[in-house]
Amino acid sequence: MAPTVTLGVIGSDAHVVGITILEHALEAAGFDVVSLGVQTSQAAFVDATAAHDADAILVSSLYGHAEQDCQGFHERVEAAGLDVVTYIGGNLAVGQDDFDETRTTFEALGFDRVFDSQTDPEEAIAALRDDLELRSSEAEFEPERVRAANG
Ligand code: B12
Questions:
Q1: What residues are annotated to the active site?
Q2: Which of 78, 90, 118, 134 has its CA at a distance of 20 to 30 angstroms from the CA of residue 127?
Q3: How far is the CA of 62 from the centre of ligand 1 (A)?
């Protein structure tokens, strides 16, 4: 089965070009994409991810308010019982920030990977393949580990 990702622009942000490009690149690479479009609330990301049993959530933000828009996002994801890979990308800070600092901020908010606005979609696709493969191989080995732990 093709991996499924939910993709949208969070908050009140209306920049649509980036996610349109990402959507096409992901589909061409064989992913099922649930595209939520622009101005997507945290609740809409979580509901769509649960409804489609998605493997990953890709959040986009361009207008400089990503940090505020993502406060509490991972708490909601967890509360919904979702075990998914989460990425965020775009123009995440206001002005020309130091990207290492920006990455640290969004990792602290719970994102597995943080991408800047120069990211080629193929880079995110390669990362997704790695992360989803790793996750499914961990799930496969879980019973072994549990058996070992139980003696
Ligand atoms: C076009 C544009 C607009 C259009 C948007 C039209 C539309 N419906 O899409 C309009 C005129 C409406 C607009 C409005 C505003 N804009 Co504007 N806009 C731009 C502009 C010029 C281009 C954006 C674009 O389409 N880029 C092309 C696409 C292909 O690139 P991208 O969006 O960056 O996406 C790529 C990557 O970022 C990455 N990516 C994006 N998301 C994700 C997610 C993941 C998970 C991954 C892996 C990768 C990824 O992959 C994408 C594909 O390659 C940028 C400046 C710029 N050069 O980027 C400013 C810019 C984004 N806008 C800006 C601002 C401030 C605004 C406004 C707040 C202005 C205002 N005061 O009203 C409003 C916000 C309105 C709103 N509610 O969103 C600022 C943001 C500043 C910041 N972050 O510090 C920018 C950077 C301009 C600037 N230099 O100041 N904008």
A1: 13, 15
A2: 78
A3: 4
